TrEMBL record:
SUPFAM superfamilies linked: Folate-binding domain
Signal peptide: none
GO cellular component: mitochondrial matrix
Swiss-Prot/TrEMBL keywords: Transferase
Protein name: CAF17 transferase
Superkingdom, taxonomy of origin: Eukaryota
Length: 194
């Protein structure tokens, strides 16, 4: 996949034009599926293309990974982004999969098919909202109070950040000075990046 290593000047200009906006936030119509339990990472390990054990490893573990869900023959079925919502290795693992909302039921059925005797819970997360965030000229806060997770997009730096928050959370409190943008502007940005 070819990705241009340039910033998003159009979106950055949009942020500056919005009276000093710190970031442009775009609501995404993608679904979130939670996988919880002591065996969550081991369960997902053979079903996805990326090394899921990185999410629950001690030390400098990444908060998000990009992967594809595989079928029995090893063919890619769906693309997903995985997020770690548990704070430490002492807590019960809680991994959230971001997927296209039209395939949420299919992915849930696919995972439940292979759940045999695993101590995991697989359920949609309708109480969470997902946002794409393109930072303006200033940097984003490293830790936001109302945000469950604010992390760089694991696919590429030019894609911005991902924000998972409780549904109905106030974005102005999570990222002070941010402006809510039209999701079509974000899609145009994605298409320009290749």
């Amino acid at each position: 996949m070819l990705v241009r290593a340039i910033t998003a000047p159009g979106l950055r200009r949009w942020c500056r034009g919005q009276r000093g906006a710190a970031a442009a936030c775009f609501p995404l119509g993608r679904a979130l599926l939670g996988v919880r339990g002591a065996e969550a990472a081991a369960f997902l390990q053979g079903l996805l293309t990326n090394d899921v054990t990185q999410l629950v490893a001690e030390g400098d573990a990444p908060p998000a990974l990009y992967a594809h869900a595989l079928n029995v023959q090893g063919r890619c079925l769906y693309d997903v982004i995985l997020y770690r919502l548990h704070g430490s290795t002492a807590e019960e693992p809680h991994i959230v999969l971001e997927c296209d909302s039209s395939v949420l039921d299919s992915i849930q059925q696919h995972l439940k098919l292979y759940k045999i005797r695993r101590k995991v819970t697989i359920s949609p997360c309708p109480d969470l909202s997902l946002w794409a965030v393109i930072p303006g000229d200033s940097s984003l806060p490293k830790c936001a109070d109302q945000a469950l997770l604010l992390t760089p997009d694991p696919r590429a730096e030019v894609m911005g950040w991902r924000l998972i928050a409780k549904k109905g959370a106030n974005l102005a409190e999570i990222i002070p000075g941010s402006q809510v943008g039209d999701v079509q502007d974000y899609h145009r940005h994605r298409y320009k990046q290749g």
